[in-house]
Design a protein that fits this description.
This protein is α/β, with parallel strands linked by helices. Helices cover about 30% and strands about 30% of the residues. Strand 8, helix 5 and strand 9 form a beta-alpha-beta unit.
């Protein structure tokens, strides 16, 4: 499977965050910050030049494209991957990095380009919210699992079982590999559409770090899958999406709890 790499020259951090936010609403799978800009990755068959050109024009940016094979993409990601430490709570690192001190939970991953390495503000925010929840003996659903980081963390926090699903075969392959590296024996990874899940199989906690369009499209599915008194964590949301997401969630039956904004991305918590 070939991928296209888009390289944007953008020095301003706020503009870089806005670019990431706008592109994430489409089918881009990986975002890599560099000293001079932002590299973005997408399957070549999904690349829509008109969409990207419109965003680049909006932000007054230019970009170049490069065709990559799967192996080269992974090698470049590994070369630039840096460990992530969240508030002394959790670390996300590759095996070529030493384990940091003073973290309660350590996640070891193969840094391929599946979305969710912990660098992205949405993943970091989700993990920060997870720190405040009680996962002990809980049944957890990770909707759009990506690299499997959130599912792995849920098990480390005491979850009795975790189901992670994704619609991308590469993400599934990477998540399974990462679960193995972290001895996450209570995590099941499947390439299963959410609408195919049995509604009788309800969950105590649902994690959904995807994008606005998917969150809106499957809000009622998530409500049906969440147990009474359960918790829903959402991310992949821009500040201007807060009202839309809140209205969709409350219409489905959820109760708003709280939110946080990190680098122009929003993480929201709802109850049932």
């Amino acid at each position: 499977m070939n991928h296209t790499k888009l390289s944007f020259e953008v020095a301003d951090q706020n503009k870089k965050d806005m670019l990431t936010a706008l592109l994430s609403n489409f089918e881009f799978e990986g975002f890599e910050e560099t000293e001079t800009g932002l590299n973005v990755y997408i399957e070549s068959t999904s690349f829509n030049k008109d969409e990207v050109d419109a965003i680049a024009t909006q932000l007054a940016l230019t970009y170049t494209t490069e065709q990559l094979e799967k192996r080269n993409w992974n090698e470049e990601w590994e070369k630039n991957f840096e460990p992530v430490i969240i508030n002394g709570f959790c670390s996300v690192r590759a095996d070529f990095h030493p384990k940091p001190e003073n973290v309660a939970y350590d996640i070891l991953i193969t840094p391929k380009m599946s979305f969710g390495t912990g660098h992205h503000a949405t993943t970091a925010s989700m993990m920060t919210f997870m720190k405040e929840l009680d996962f002990t003996d809980k049944k957890v659903f990770d909707f759009g699992t990506g690299t499997g980081i959130l599912a792995i963390l849920a098990e480390q926090l005491g979850a009795a079982s975790v189901l992670g699903i994704d619609n991308d075969e590469w993400s599934i392959e990477n998540a399974i590999e990462n679960c193995g590296r972290n001895n996450a024996t209570k995590v099941a990874i499947q390439i299963t559409p959410i609408e195919n899940l049995e509604k009788a199989e309800q969950y105590d906690i649902i994690l959904a770090n995807i994008n606005r369009h998917i969150l809106l499209a499957y809000m009622e599915n998530m409500f049906a899958l969440l147990k009474p008194d359960g918790t829903l964590l959402l991310s992949g949301i821009l500040p201007e999406d807060i009202t839309m997401i809140t209205e969709s969630a409350t219409t489905a039956g959820f109760k708003y709890d709280k939110e946080m904004i990190r680098n122009n991305w929003v993480c929201m918590q709802f109850g049932k």
